[in-house]
Write a structure and sequence with these properties.
Length: 87
């Protein structure tokens, strides 16, 4: 445990940030898995809705700095390609 006041504060703020980051990251992963599951089922209408949700979650993770811009673009491209290949 740190002794300096500013170091103690950093421990608290880092813990709060970690909780928020975990929420964003887990919701991103869940949205992607839900979309992939819908694609396997072959439901086109539901897949387009789930794709929009997944893209929103990816953009949020990118904006907050959890994932790199190029990774976000790559994920969105792959998911969009999956949807387009359904049709």
């Amino acid at each position: 445990m740190p002794n300096i006041k500013s170091a103690k504060k950093r421990v608290i703020t880092n813990r709060k940030k970690a909780v928020g980051n975990n929420n964003v990251e887990s919701s991103r992963r869940t949205a992607i898995k839900n979309f992939e599951k819908t694609v396997k089922e072959g439901n086109k209408e539901a897949a387009s809705e789930k794709l929009n949700i997944a893209i929103q979650r990816i953009d949020k993770a990118c904006k907050s700095g959890l994932i790199h811009t190029n990774k976000a673009a790559r994920l969105k491209s792959r998911l969009t390609k999956m949807k387009n290949d359904m049709e």
